[in-house]
Amino acid sequence: xxxxxxxxxxxxxxxxxxxxxxMASIVSALVMRRxxxxxxxxxxxYGVDVALRFTLEYASAGDMPANFAFQLAVSRMDMGGLAATxxxxxxxxxxxILFGMKRRYTP
Length: 107
Known about the structure:
The structure is a single chain. By secondary structure, this protein is mostly helical. Helix content is 80%, strand content 0%. The chain has helices spanning 5-11, 15-31, 38-60, 66-79, 81-105. It is globular and about 50 Å long.
């Protein structure tokens, strides 16, 4: 029997992934001044996420060549394919919710 999409989605995220999405979204929402900046904020947060993933793979691999570390980081994202596809949208959603709360509750 095949697993349902929700189980596959949850299997693609680790505690580090969820905590980094939360922290990057909080920082991005605090830096934003207008709603028109949400695209840039989400893309920068996602870019930092991908760069951090590559850097951690490269640093933990020892004397591995950079192209192999990049391939390993991409294949690690492919293991949780549904989660990797959904990740940029999670950044957009989390930043929008946090920025909306900031706009509503700040004077």
